[in-house]
Amino acid sequence: MVEIKLMSACTFEHAQQAWNDGFSGYARDLTMDLSTWLHRCAREDLLPDLSVIAFDGSNPVGFVISGLREMNGELVVWNGGTAIAPAYRGQGIGNLLMEASLQLYRRHGAQLACLEALEDNVQAIKLYEKLGYSVIDKLFSLEKSGDLILPPLTPDGSYKGEPVRPRDLGGIPFYNHLSPWHCQWQSIQDGEAVLVKDSKADTVGYALFRREFNEAGQLLGIALYQCEVDAARVDQTGIFQTLLSHVFSPLSVDCRRHTVNIPAANAVLLDMLRRAGFETAMTEVHMTQRF
Fold first, then answer.
1. Phi, psi dihedral angles at 136 (to 5 degrees)
2. Using CA atoms, how far apart are residues 201 and 114, in angstroms rounded to an integer?
3. 20 to 30 A from 112, CA-CA: which of 132, 181, 189, 241?
4. DSSP assignment of the chain, as one string?
5. Distance in angstroms (rounded) separating the CA atoms of residues 88 and 162
6. Could you give all domains of the chain from N- to C-terminal order, each with its CATH number?
7. d(CA 214, CA 3)
8. pTM, whole model, 2 decimals?
């Protein structure tokens, strides 16, 4: 008989085993050693007393791991991963874990719950919808290797980029508080951010990104997590050009450039990236429900 336990009542080793076994055979390799897993939990504000593990006897066979943040004046919870060990899939354990998680969310006073799911994981999406979640957008992860000396990314001289700290973005009036959890500034505090200002020194756009280097200091890749422009601006193309030119510079360097979960609603940005040679690597859906 399967028993649901709070992750806070389990060992780190059981939690890591549940994670690695649950994601066995998954579309992406999400397995981690204990140190990497703990680092991820800290970075994403994942909480053991808001997370649950399913046990068959002493064997962990599935989990839901969740985080809690106050965002834009409300308590938001995030399902940071739901997975079942292969031998236990199709037995209703995912439903039990999700129902237990939703009870915990309400007990902690959450006002909004969110999660992401692979677009082709139809079975999981149906379960989430049955439990009250709704799809609010599609999310695209794009990538491009090689240099990026292309006309669509030629910066417009009317705008200036200003490097800032990731945490400075939260106070921008048009900051996207509904961006996927791991694309929020709180999850990218070790990354970089840039504002774009117009000739009046008004902030008209921002980007949040992270660069990856090897031990010799060589640039290996750049990941873009958020890139937003004030929706009231009619000159969005030039602002996006300036942002992307700053984020992906130096454009002549051969490295992996990719985006993480850009919303379909950000159509101008996605069109510009695709015209610059970026291709879709993964598509997910963004789902939420209110309490």
1. -110, -15
2. 35
3. 189
4. -EEEEEGGGS-HHHHHHHHHHHTTT-SS-----HHHHHHHHHHTTB-GGG-EEEEETTEEEEEEEEEEEEETTEEEEEEEEEEE-GGGTTSSHHHHHHHHHHHHHHHTT-SEEEEEEETT-HHHHHHHHHTT-EEEEEEEEEEE-S----GGGPPPTT-EEEEE-GGGGGGSTT--TTS-GGGSGGG-TTSEEEEEE-TT--EEEEEEEEEEE-TT--EEEEEEEEEEE-TT-S-HHHHHHHHHHHHT-STTS--EEEES-EETT-HHHHHHHHHTT-EEEEEEEEEEEE-
5. 51
6. 2-110 (3.40.630.30), 141-285 (3.40.630.30)
7. 44
8. 0.93
Quick: pLDDT tens for 221-244: 999 999 999 999 998 988 998 999
Tell me how crowded residue 52 is: count the other CB atoms within 10 A of its CB: 28
Angle at 139 (CA atoms; ends 240, 160), nearest 5 degrees: 15
Beta-bridged to residue 196, according to DSSP, are 161, 205
Band (pLDDT 50/70/90 cuts) for residue 150 is low
Q: What is the pLDDT of residues 8-32, one digit of tens each?
A: 999 999 999 999 999 887 777 788 8
Q: How far apart are CA 254 and CA 96, in angstroms?
A: 47
Calculate helix-pair angle for 34-43, 12-22, nearest 10 degrees: 90
CB atoms within 10 A of CB 84: 22
Cβ–Cβ < 8 Å for 80, 181: yes
The alpha carbon dihedral of 82, 85, 88, 90 has a sign of positive
Please give the Cα distance from 224 to 247 (Å, whole number): 8
**Is residue 152 scored above 70 in pLDDT?**
no
Structure tokens at 148: 């990026």
Structure tokens at 147: 């240099």
Q: Which residues contact 270 (CB under 8 A, 6 or more apart)?
A: 140, 142, 262, 264
Q: Is 195 exposed, middle or buried (0-12, 13-18, 19+ CB in 10 A)?
A: buried
